Automatic annotation (TrEMBL):
<keyword id="KW-0132">Cell division</keyword>
<comment type="pathway">
    <text>Cell wall biogenesis; peptidoglycan biosynthesis.</text>
</comment>
<feature type="binding site">
    <location>
        <position position="92"/>
    </location>
    <ligand>
        <name>UDP-N-acetyl-alpha-D-glucosamine</name>
    </ligand>
</feature>
<dbReference type="InterPro" id="IPR001986">
    <property type="entry name" value="Enolpyruvate_Tfrase_dom"/>
</dbReference>
<dbReference type="InterPro" id="IPR036968">
    <property type="entry name" value="Enolpyruvate_Tfrase_sf"/>
</dbReference>
<dbReference type="GO" id="GO:0051301">
    <property type="term" value="P:cell division"/>
</dbReference>
<feature type="active site" description="Proton donor">
    <location>
        <position position="116"/>
    </location>
</feature>
<dbReference type="GO" id="GO:0008760">
    <property type="term" value="F:UDP-N-acetylglucosamine 1-carboxyvinyltransferase activity"/>
</dbReference>
<dbReference type="GO" id="GO:0071555">
    <property type="term" value="P:cell wall organization"/>
</dbReference>
<keyword id="KW-0573">Peptidoglycan synthesis</keyword>
<dbReference type="InterPro" id="IPR005750">
    <property type="entry name" value="UDP_GlcNAc_COvinyl_MurA"/>
</dbReference>
<comment type="function">
    <text>Cell wall formation. Adds enolpyruvyl to UDP-N-acetylglucosamine.</text>
</comment>
<dbReference type="Pfam" id="PF00275">
    <property type="entry name" value="EPSP_synthase"/>
</dbReference>
<dbReference type="InterPro" id="IPR013792">
    <property type="entry name" value="RNA3'P_cycl/enolpyr_Trfase_a/b"/>
</dbReference>
<keyword id="KW-0808">Transferase</keyword>
<keyword id="KW-0670">Pyruvate</keyword>
<keyword id="KW-0133">Cell shape</keyword>
Length: 419
């Protein structure tokens, strides 16, 4: 198994290109199930989750070619609507095929995704919404069996909790439904907005894009002609690199990003003492490496993203004071804390609250536990005295394209080695 060996202390300088957003590319690939044409997608991030998702669609019978960051996929040849456990267990975002499959074919079996490291990750809200739209949902042998022989019908859906993939699933299902679907308490993440914008460009009438109330007028199973799609930049990858410069010190320009997707992250970084220069789709961050403490509460967009919580915990470990983090979305998203403590961090956990007293960090052998936790350990290693080895970095490979190459080009002393 691969691991990363990082020697701390190097400042970072230069430019880094931000890749397309994994969490936009995944629902876009699922949306190809609604299309009757070849779907062409550019700026696809080259990460494991994308490869896994494409393999899922191929297992259903879709044909696709992935050339670098350009994907062509055609789903007219789909001959199975069973998403099996062996793929779904690897990536819970596979649940994104549920809405499109039942909307188009009137029947599908999707393995229950199960929990993951950061929490139980239920899909009850997805299923309740599809039932409101006329689907029959049965749970059998670990599979969700969804059927809607006469097609889905428009309905009023109220989400008890704001759910990103839940909103995406229902927007996509509603696009082919017979009648109008109103979604209340919808997610407003940029990735949800892009899905709605693509559907609107394909002729689906949608109101309320980017708001918590989305109205979708279905085509009554008329398949869509999807336009050429360019995946939006990955705001979490961008936030992670901003944090890398913040903790290591230096001056780095991030290219091809969307500053409007990073307002809460940039706000917290400026609270910590960082300075920025903005130039259209680029941001330059300037860091002395000195950091003020920070108070974080994770919430839905446009609030502070839970996917940036671990990275900010790493920053807080070397800030000049006491920081607090309140993780409001997931019940078990502090697993990076015990690994940071192995590096000398002073972190006290109390349920969903973390209190971090900034000090120095020292290199150690640490273990990645989930995608964003692994990036936090890399950030800590960039600052730590001595050498850190981050193990189980298959977690990182799921969502960061060429992380060690990009950091090495900026001046980090980082190598990928095999155990
Ligand atoms: C998406 O997950 C992202 N994944 C996650 O990113 C991200 O952390 C999360 O949204 C929150 O922003 C993708 O977009 C592929 P939710 P999702 O449904 O949709 C509860 C990463 O690192 N809930 O918005 O699965 C749930 O337990 C990943 O890239 C229910 O109770 O998250 C959580 O407490 C990690 N029932 C809250 O809602 C449901 O049916 C938000 O979850 C659905 C969700």
């Amino acid at each position: 198994m691969d691991y990363l060996e990082i020697k701390g202390g190097n400042k970072l300088f230069g430019e880094v290109n931000i890749s397309g957003a994994k969490n936009a590319a995944l629902p876009i690939i699922a949306m190809s199930i609604l299309a009757k044409n070849d779907v062409l997608v550019s700026n696809i991030p080259q990460v494991e989750d994308i490869k896994t998702f494409i393999k899922l669609l191929q297992n259903l019978g879709a044909t696709s070619t992935l050339d670098g960051s350009n994907l062509k996929i055609n789903t007219t040849s789909i001959n199975s609507t069973k998403a099996t456990y062996d793929i779904v267990r690897k990536m819970r975002a596979s649940i994104l095929v549920l809405g499109p499959l039942v909307a188009r074919y009137g029947y599908c079996e999707v393995s229950l995704p199960g929990g993951c490291a950061i929490g139980a990750r239920p899909i009850d809200l997805h299923l309740a919404a599809l039932e409101k739209m006329g689907a029959t949902i049965e749970i059998k042998d670990g599979y969700v069996i969804a059927s809607a022989k006469d097609g889905l019908k428009g309905a009023n859906i109220v989400f008890d909790k704001i759910t990103v993939t839940g909103t995406e699933n229902i927007v996509m299902a509603a696009a082919l439904a017979n009648g109008t679907t109103k979604i209340f308490n919808a997610a407003k993440e940029p990735e949800v907005v892009q899905i709605c914008q693509i559907l609107e460009t394909s002729g689906v009438k949608i109101e309320g894009i980017g708001t918590s109330e989305i109205t979708v007028h279905g085509t009554n199973k008329e398949l869509l002609n999807l336009p050429k799609i360019t995946v939006i930049p990955d705001r979490i990858e961008a936030g992670t690199y901003l944090c890398a410069v913040a903790i290591a010190g230096g001056e780095v320009t991030l290219k091809n990003i969307e500053p409007n997707h990073l307002v809460s992250v940039l706000g917290k970084l400026s609270d910590m003492g960082l300075n920025f220069e903005f130039n259209d789709k680029n941001i330059k961050i300037i860091s002395s490496g000195a950091l003020h403490p920070v108070q974080i509460i994770t919430t839905e967009f446009p609030g502070f993203p839970t996917d940036m919580q671990a990275q900010f915990m790493a920053l807080a470990c070397v800030a000049d004071g006491v920081s607090t983090i309140d993780e409001r979305l997931f019940e078990n998203r502090f697993m990076h804390a015990s690994e940071l403590i192995r590096m000398g961090a002073d972190i006290k956990l109390n349920g969903h609250l973390a209190t971090i007293c900034g000090d120095e960090l020292n290199g150690a052998d640490v273990m990645a536990t989930d995608l964003r936790a692994s990036s936090a350990l890399v950030l800590a290693a960039l600052r730590a005295n001595g050498t850190t080895r981050v193990h189980r970095i298959y977690h990182l490979d799921r969502g960061y394209e060429n992380l060690e190459t990009k950091l090495s080009k900026l001046g980090a002393d980082i190598k990928r080695l095999s155990e």
